[in-house]
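Bug report

Summary: structure tokens for 6-phospho-beta-glucosidase differ between web form and batch submission.
Environment: batch mode, default settings.
Steps: 1) Submit the sequence below via batch. 2) Compare with the web form result.

Sequence submitted:
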Amino acid sequence: MTTTFPEGFLWGGATAANQIEGAYNEGGKGLSIQDVMPKGITEIPTEGPTPENLKQVAIDFYHRYAEDIALFADMGFKVFRFSIAWSRIFPLGDEETPSAEGLAFYSRVLDELEKHGIEPLVTISHYETPLHLARKYNGWTNRELIGFYERYCSALFEHFGGRVKYWLTFNEINSVIHEPFMSGGIPTPKDQLTKQDLYQAIHHELVASARASKLARELMPGAQVGCMILALPTYPLTPDPSDVVAAMLTAQDSYAFGDIHCRGEYPGYLLRYFRDNGIELEITAQDREDLKNTVDFVSFSYYMSICETADPAKKTKGPGNIMGGVPNPTLKASEWGWQIDPQGLRVALNDYWDRWQKPLFIVENGLGAVDKLVEVDGEKTVVDDYRIGYLNDHLVQAREAVADGVQLMGYTSWGCIDLVSASTAQMSKRYGFIYVDRNDDGTGSMERYPKKSYGWYKEVIATNGASLTD
């Protein structure tokens, strides 16, 4: 008997406010760090918003959300993962009261989702710390941000608590190690940021995340709160035991975030890292109590795996290895150099399930590629068989993990509609089932066209994965 996905499996897609909404200066919104990142992580931030920043308009979801949600509903989405822009709710981040206009916008989005029977999965903070908090307080290095974040969560939970069951605290929280400005709102240049300050910022985020879990249980007894980490299975480059240890140490960089969220305390290997590097964190007794508020489930993104080696002569970095690591010589890569490893998803799922025994949720997975709009039977579309192949192969491995006994809640494909890339701020790096007619130079009609993968995913959802091909 072929194992299928569980009954009630949450099929859908995922996005982020800064990559789809646009309307950066409408509806009372304040500036976020994304408004000064016109080239993503590839260049240093600007002083203020610049016209070449595609995120200022993005794909105009702010005005077109009803049209887009209708397309998601036509595909059969059970769930839609989106983020709330912190600076729409608290324009500066440190105000006492939330913006009524910002809350009203997300209420309208929830109205549309409810109309179509789509469950919302809300990311509270997705790479868009209010710019004021970054510049005035030095981002998450400052303990005051815990209180600001808690106030923000209170506003969301009080206004939307009865309408949103699934919440994620911070997107890819472990990415702060490599991208402190985008992930932690820390404006200090990476090469000048001390490990002491970086891990103090990480500590503040972890405490804030735990407080959000506590607050959610108080205000929304039926809700579930998950952490969200960037999954990066790490293989030794060779069977040399030194490479195995190198891979173990790199894997621990990411494990730590899940371990703390799931177990409520710092793991021994991280405490050793602090000792070895002279890091002495300010951790209060209240912090330790707060951290015991563990998550209900673990969500993660999965795009690639990496290798590690202890041999300095072999430490080459691939173009897509944003989070470090060595390219795997046995794997092919995407157009952006991200190595394609479907079996790595099964490895990650088994690894996380065995380690944490918490329900898992794949909330990002997809292929960024250059798509070509063509005409087929008089309709504009994209014949994206390469994307279908990628997603099919990953979902087959997710199904294998379910057969292995992993408790998997759902799957939301990243960038279910074309959006502005986070890492490069390009439109040409497309992930969606829906083509959006917008180009890297800002031109385009913004029209939406379903791709071939749209119909394919619709069938996958309708059959609960039975249409997948081995």
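Above is the batch result. After comparison, the two runs are identical; trailing whitespace caused the diff. The mean pLDDT is 96. The chain is about 40% helix and 15% strand.
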